[in-house]
Write a structure and sequence with these properties.
Elements lengths: L1 E2 L10 H10 L35 H17 L2 E4 L5 E8 L12 H15 L2 E8 L3 E8 L6 H5 L10 H12 L4 E6 L12 E5 L6 E11 L9 E10 L4 E9 L8 E5 L4 E8 L6 E5 L9 E4 L7 E6 L9 H12 L2 E3 L6 E4 L10 E6 L4 E4 L3 E3 L16 E4 L7 E6 L2 E8 L5 E6 L12 H14 L4 E2 L3 E3 L3 E5 L9 E5 L5 E5 L4 E5 L4 E7 L2 E8 L3 H4 L7 E3 L6 H6 E3 L1 H26 L1
Parallel strand pairs: 3-4, 3-6, 6-7, 15-16, 15-17, 17-18, 18-24, 26-32
Antiparallel strand pairs: 1-2, 2-34, 4-5, 7-33, 8-9, 9-12, 10-11, 10-13, 13-14, 19-21, 20-22, 22-23, 23-24, 25-27, 27-30, 28-29, 28-31, 31-32
Helix pairs in contact: 1-2, 2-10, 6-7
Length: 593
């Protein structure tokens, strides 16, 4: 049995008040009068007074007592669920890492205890959705508290964000019109709940937090002559007053530095730039401990120093403005290439040839009867070559022929200037109609941008990971070497030493880090490690957390259909008692007269 409006049971406080009226009785004081013939009833009234006597308990007292109790119970709307119903419930659990906040007991632990109490009080059939970066429906169906243990083990609270809106949409879809939806999180809803089937429980409290919110590590440009890595770290103070902390840096192959004190203004971020020597190994940066530990530590693996093997098959030229020299200088400026005469990763030529091998080709094709274009140029912004490219105030000269049939990347009106075609081996052939003597492209900032984009794009196709430092659940693409293609599976060892296997299909493999820390990867002869870090300002900011409950299941229509209400029984009992009391009072009045 349950009460829809349990606070209405406060009406039961009227019962002792009624008893007090019958308890507090008074004796009549003597009065001297001249005659009694004008008095209808000469008996002493006993309806009340200031003196205390023995309690009077006539039948009307019990009838009034029962009537008052029945009215209070009816106002609380008592009822019970029909025996054939087990309440369908869909749990939406916030799986983001801000749920780990807490000094003695985390928000997740508090939510787990509240959930077990709710499941223990009612009969439910429960489905569980983990609200991480994407909603994840668990296969287990829970019918009691004991069965809740297994799904809660997957509630790790290590996701970078919680997609609660998408999770609520999924919960409505799988639960149907008759399911209740319970959201457990650490912050209030951002807008009013649209459905009466939703209850939103927030168990978080506002907290101050200092967190590492940005971390990157890149190789120093080889063109500068320096060796080593450049590191950027950002520490943010999520509070309303200045705060102090210490930053500790340690490298695998270097000494641990002494803690560096940091004093950060309220709501401000402190950025630190430093240079690591070559082969310093993995860098670990740590802040002082606080309520949220996951964002107090980051790992940064030294990026792979890969050089793109480039063969330039262009005519020799004595002039510094010859196409060969312009291409060579732009390649040298990237600091990521080495010129070779054989087995290139990228071949730059002025002739159109049949595709051979796995090397990429950049064909710069000239010709006669040139035409110059000053725009407007149309660029495919989804292509890697056009990132940061503008072609503003550029004159581009190209021959009228040939015409291309492959995918256009840059066009001038209806004239195709640059195309991209993928071969059956996975390499790309870029064909560019270009006459450098009549163009200003090579004198504009767009020329080194174009060459740099090309080099970086080609580097992503070399064997190995595209990057070694990622955020939580950020995809990591690994290009497989020829030897790794025959490996049956890829093995990833997570920071908690758990092992995960993934099948190998094709030349590329996509991995996702779901735990912060260092991951070890083995794919046949290929072995490397990558770092995964919790870097999300929204999750580290705990000032917006607030405890509370929003939403009422009892007001929804499906809830009324599943219960048997007993308020009418209480009202019937109250009316019966009042009718009996009226009958008794009427009878006493007639008898007395």
């Amino acid at each position: 049995m349950f009460f829809t409006l349990p606070w209405m049971l406060l009406g039961l406080l009227g019962l002792p008040l009624l008893a007090g009226i019958y308890w507090l009785r008074s004796r009549s004081r003597p009065r001297v009068v001249s005659s009694l013939f004008l008095w209808i009833d000469q008996r002493n009234p006993r309806e009340g007074g200031r003196l205390i006597e023995k309690i009077q308990t006539p039948l009307t007292f019990f009838l009034e007592l029962i009537a008052l109790a029945a009215i209070a119970l009816a106002a609380a709307l008592p009822g019970f669920i029909r025996p054939q119903y087990a309440r369908p419930l869909v749990l939406v659990l916030d799986n983001s890492y801000s749920m780990q906040a807490g000094e003695e007991k985390s928000v997740r632990q508090q939510a787990e205890q509240a959930l077990q109490d709710e499941i223990g009080r009612h009969r439910y059939v429960v489905r569980v959705i983990l609200a991480g970066k994407d909603p994840h429906l668990l296969s287990a169906v829970v019918r009691n508290r004991d069965e809740l243990t297994q799904p809660l083990q997957e509630w790790t609270c290590q996701a970078p964000i919680a997609s609660l809106e998408a999770s609520l949409a999924l919960a409505s879809e799988i639960g149907g019109e008759t399911a209740r939806i319970l959201v457990l999180t650490d912050h209030p809803p951002t807008e009013e709940l649209k459905s009466t089937a939703i209850q939103w429980w927030s168990l978080g409290t506002p907290k101050e937090n200092l967190a590492l919110t940005a971390a990157s590590r890149d190789s120093i440009d080889q063109g500068t002559g320096e060796q080593g890595d450049r590191v950027l770290l950002e520490v943010t103070n999520f509070s309303n007053h200045p705060a102090r902390t210490h930053l500790r840096l340690a490298a695998d192959k270097g000494p641990t530095t002494s803690p560096q004190p940091l004093e950060i203004a309220a709501g401000a971020a402190h950025r630190l730039m430093l240079t690591l020597p070559q082969n310093a190994g993995t860098l670990q940066a740590t802040l002082d401990a606080n309520d949220l530990k996951i964002d107090n530590e980051v790992f940064l693996v030294s990026p792979r120093k890969r050089a793109l093997r480039v063969q330039i098959a262009l005519p020799e030229g004595d002039s510094q403005t010859s196409l060969r020299n312009l291409v060579a200088r732009a390649l040298e400026a990237t600091g990521q290439t080495v010129l070779v005469d054989s087995r290139p990763d990228l071949l730059i030529t002025d002739r159109s040839l049949e595709p051979e091998g796995t090397a990429h080709r950049w064909e710069i094709l000239g010709g006669s009867d040139p035409v110059s274009y000053d725009g407007p140029f149309v660029l495919d912004r989804n292509h890697p070559l056009t990132q940061g490219l503008s072609l503003d105030a550029v004159i581009w000269s190209a021959p009228k022929e040939p015409a291309f049939n492959s995918i256009p990347v840059i066009t001038a009106g209806n004239r195709i200037l640059l195309t991209d075609q993928e071969t059956i081996t996975g390499s790309h052939v870029l064909q560019m109609l270009f006459i450098p003597e009549l163009s200003t492209l090579t004198q504009s900032p767009d020329w080194p941008i174009l060459v740099t984009n090309l080099v970086r794009w080609c580097l992503t196709s070399l064997p190995g990971p595209g990057t070694v430092n990622v955020r939580l659940e950020q995809p990591l693409t690994v290009m497989l070497s020829e030897d790794a293609l025959t490996a049956p599976e890829a093995v990833v060892i997570a920071p908690d030493k758990s092992t995960h296997s993934f099948p190998v299909h094709g030349k590329a493999l996509e991995l996702v880090g779901r735990q912060p820390g260092l991951h070890q990867v083995r794919i046949g002869p290929m072995e490397f490690q990558f770092a995964c870090n919790a870097l999300n300002s929204d999750e580290s900011n705990l000032t917006g957390c607030e405890p509370g409950k929003w939403g009422e299941w009892q007001t929804s229509q499906f809830y009324q259909d599943q219960q048997i209400n007993l308020d009418w029984v209480c009202i019937l009992v109250a009316l019966t008692c009042l009718m009996l009391e009226l009958m008794i009072l009427y009878r006493e009045g007639v008898t007395g007269s």
